[in-house]
Write a structure and sequence with these properties.
Elements (H helix, E strand, L loop, with lengths): L9 H18 L4 E4 L16 H7 L5 E4 L3 E2 L3 E4 L9 E11 L1 E3 L6 E4 L2 E4 L8 H6 L2 E3 L2 E3 L22 E6 L18 E6 L11 E4 L5 E4 L6 E12 L6 E3 L2 E13 L4 E5 L2 E12 L3 E5 L4 E10 L4 E6 L3 E11 L3 E6 L8 E12 L5 E4 L3 E11 L2 E4 L3 E5 L2 E3 L1 E2 L9 H4 L7 E2 L2 E4 L4 E5 L2 E2 L3 E4 L2 E3 L4 H8 L6 E2 L13 H7 L8 H6 L3
Parallel strand pairs: 1-2, 2-5, 3-5, 4-14, 5-15, 14-16, 15-17, 16-18, 17-19, 18-20, 19-21, 20-22, 21-23, 22-24, 23-25, 24-26, 25-27, 26-28, 27-29, 27-30, 28-33, 29-34, 30-35, 33-36, 35-38
Antiparallel strand pairs: 6-13, 7-8, 8-12, 9-10, 9-13, 11-12, 31-32, 36-37
Length: 514
């Protein structure tokens, strides 16, 4: 009998070691990593960890990080973290909340006048960008002082002009006789002021400030990009920037059943060349519901947005974006805006299918600008003007109709409290500039006016509009809202799958859908 021996010297030894490493790595069992902020220990070899940061640091392909359904006072940062296509790394919040704010330290505040308090070192570093997003949580309510990062913002008040329940910031300026340096730092110094009711105690105000920039944050590019990740069942609230802030490059990333509530800037925002999918997203009380920029590639399904300040939907630059099966109750300064760059070969592109957008406060519009493309089907726009100033619009099987809209002066939440909206319906204006490529059919319009370049059309002249554009042969202009079968969003599907059932105002929100 012949015997065979394996030479373990030199190259043979290295080859066997490599094979063993591959065998071990391919058969290694995926781990369940638990994070308990109260009972966990980051230094322990067994049992739950204390921080999300440590859990992400040690997670390997196939691992799942499990959070408790409680509040975590930290953010989840992913920087060059990679699973594999077959074994993604998963962060499952199980209903956890990442809280971006902390209580103020009352010992840092000095009473400079009766009921007026001042603090010079509230944050270790401030910038104009942070100040533009800044807010105080005052007894659970966000106080923005009429300021937002995207959209018009009021100037800071003088401290002596503050009313009870208000705040302001006074920048420190160069002393008399000194000039500002030629290259100023982005850091800002100065003092915050708070005005209390007469005789109120600062310690009893339940005041909190946003101390974390985001709830979930991505960063990394090149070989150190993020890839093959799943983040689900998680709420981000009260950071001074975005709920979900996605920078750098990422690919094969899935966000599932996530929420961004009362964030200083965007609910979720893609930058640079980020590529991800979202299935189930609630965005409430943020400066912007969704804001995607750069050359990012994003897809959103089952989105519910309300009570934004600056924009409900804002898509920019050369990205490719998709929005499906979504409901937007719009009261922001801008409802939906597409803004391309100067390169016509790389337009900003948004595809929408089965989307319902209703304006509930103040007059506003959907705007498609130069070097942008909107491809929409089975979309319902209520109480919204539509203006295409450039680019391309493809619109099929959709409704653009009137809706009862409250004055813009109403608070964002007022429409939810109103059992009956008595405002007169706002009939939309449809304006198509002369350089726009308009491709459309099987739409239903209830309009105040229809204009192509400088030519206006009445309902009786709709056939002239059809001949001029060579489009809309099966579309119609109606005089009042009726049940138009086959036009617009599938409301039954949206009511069942998109509106969050755990919202206290669910039934009232549902009444805003026809």
């Amino acid at each position: 009998m012949r015997r065979y021996f394996l030479n373990l010297n030199g190259a043979g030894s290295r080859y066997l070691s490599a094979v063993l490493v591959l065998l071990v790595s391919s058969t290694a069992a995926a781990r369940d990593i638990h994070v308990d902020p109260d009972k966990g220990n980051d230094a322990a070899s067994e049992g739950p960890l204390k921080t999300i940061r440590q859990a992400i640091r040690i997670a390997e392909p196939g691992d799942t990080i499990h959070l408790l359904p409680t509040v975590y006072h930290e953010y989840a940062g992913f920087y060059g973290k990679q699973g594999t296509p077959e074994k993604p790394i998963t962060l499952d919040g199980h209903g956890a909340t990442l809280e971006g704010s902390d209580p103020i330290d009352v010992t840092l505040w000095a009473e400079v006048k009766p009921d007026l308090y001042r603090c010079e070192n509230l944050m270790p570093a401030l910038s104009d960008a942070i100040l533009q997003r800044w807010f105080f949580l005052w007894n659970g309510k966000m106080v923005h002082m009429g300021r937002t990062s995207k959209g018009p913002s009021k100037d800071f008040k003088k401290p002596e002009d503050l009313q009870p329940g208000e705040w302001t910031f006074v920048k420190q300026t160069a002393p008399a006789g000194q000039t500002e340096p030629a290259e100023k730092s982005s850091q800002v110094t100065g003092a915050f002021y708070l005005k209390l009711s007469s005789g109120a105690q600062l310690s009893e105000q339940n005041l909190r400030i946003p101390v974390r920039s985001a709830g979930v944050q991505f960063g990394g590019s090149g070989k150190n990009h993020n890839a093959h990740l799943v983040i689900r069942n998680l709420t981000c609230t009260h950071p001074y920037n975005d709920g979900f802030n996605i920078h750098g490059h990422c690919e094969n990333v899935l966000f599932e059943n996530i929420r961004a509530i009362e964030c200083g800037d965007d609910g979720i925002s893609a930058h640079e060349t980020a590529e991800y999918r979202v299935d189930g997203f609630v965005s409430i009380g943020n400066s912007t519901g969704i804001c995607d920029t750069g050359a990012s590639r994003t897809s959103y399904n089952r989105v519910f947005i309300r009570d934004c300040l600056g924009f409900d939907l804002f898509f920019l630059d050369t990205g490719r974006y998709t929005l499906t099966n979504s409901v937007i109750l719009s009261s922001a300064v801008r409802t939906l805006t597409l803004v391309g760059r100067d390169d016509p070969d790389q337009p900003c592109s948004l595809t929408m299918k089965n989307v319902f957008i209703r304006r509930v406060a103040g007059k506003n519009e959907v705007r498609v600008s130069r070097n942008s493309r909107l491809d929409a089907s089975h979309v319902t726009l209520m109480g919204l003007n539509f203006q295409a100033t450039g680019g391309e619009v493809s619109l099929f099987d959709s409704l653009i109709v009137s809706a009862a809209v409250q004055p813009a002066s109403h608070a964002a939440y007022d429409y939810l409290a109103a059992e009956n909206n008595t405002e007169e319906p706002l009939k939309p204006e449809l304006l198509i500039w002369k350089d726009v490529k308009w491709t459309a059919d099987r739409n239903c319009y209830e309009l105040q006016s229809l204009r192509v370049d400088k030519t206006f059309f009445t309902p009786a002249q709709f056939n002239q509009f059809q001949r001029l554009t060579g489009q809309e042969q099966q579309s119609k202009w109606i005089s009042s809202v009726t049940a138009e079968t086959g036009f617009g969003a599938d409301l039954a599907k949206l009511k069942q799958s998109t509106i969050p059932e755990n919202e206290l105002e669910t039934q009232r929100v549902r009444t805003l859908l026809p």
